[in-house]
Amino acid sequence: MNDVIFETVVTTVAPDGRPHVAPMGVRYRGDQVVLMPFRPSTTLDNIAAGGCAVLNIVTDTRVFAGCVTGRREWPTQPAEKITGVRLACALSHVELQLAERIDDVQRPVLNMARVHEAMHAPFAGFNRAQAAVIEGAVLVSRLRMLPADKVDSEMAYLQIAIDKTAGPAEHEAWGWLREAVQRHRAALAGSIPEGLAP
Ligand SMILES: Cc1cc2nc3c(=O)[nH]c(=O)nc-3n(C[C@H](O)[C@H](O)[C@H](O)COP(=O)(O)O)c2cc1C
């Protein structure tokens, strides 16, 4: 049986205090939260250096789409019990301390203990457009690995949920994802060097 994975946003801080925001699929094992960052990872480096992270439960999917399209700066607030920050838009957050690290050349496993948690806003219910943005963000984060026709057919299917159920935030997030696909194609075609594209 597969592990149950929950899509969240993990915030960490660098030794110089710079916040870092990264979408991350997490597993819950007993009381602990399990993070599995692929190397190289700023999240991993920050946790290795400081031993702390914050798990953010968010439904503003612009954070997911933003992080995979170069928009990594999101409003944060200081954590209460650890050195760290939480997302201002988090419905709830959990402050975490590294309990155990199982090293791996590709994907270390970080078992994180809960230090403190707080609720900030209620969960309004499932929204299909938010789910579609998450799926779209996963596709965009794998553009270099996926065949173009698979990306196109999956984006076309996800577009249905966007058209039927999105609010302004999801439309904005979806627009960023579509732009990123177009930019990637243009870069492949040699018209715009990807790193220089707006
Ligand atoms: C929904 C979603 C889930 C993700 N889950 C993971 C994950 O579990 N591990 C990981 O390394 N990257 C994951 N990613 C990709 C990271 O967010 C992205 O590569 C990020 O930059 C992580 O690297 P960083 O720690 O250097 O920021 C996910 C992306 C999305 C959109």
Report on the structure:
- With 198 residues, the chain is α+β, with helices and mostly antiparallel strands.
- It folds into two domains: 6-119, Pnp Oxidase, Chain A; 128-188.
- The protein is built from five helices and eight strands; from the N terminus they run E-E-E-H-E-H-E-E-E-E-H-H-H.
- It has helices at residues 42-50, 62-67, 128-141, 148-165, 168-188; strands spanning 6-13, 19-29, 32-35, 52-57, 76-78, 85-87, 92-102, 109-119.
- The protein has a six-stranded antiparallel β-barrel with strand order 1-2-3-8-7-4.
- A hairpin with a 6-residue loop joins strand 5 (76-78) and strand 6.
- The protein is globular.
- The mean pLDDT is 96.
- Residues 7, 22-25, 36-38, 41-43, 64, 67-68, 134, 137-138, 141 line the site of flavin mononucleotide (FMN).
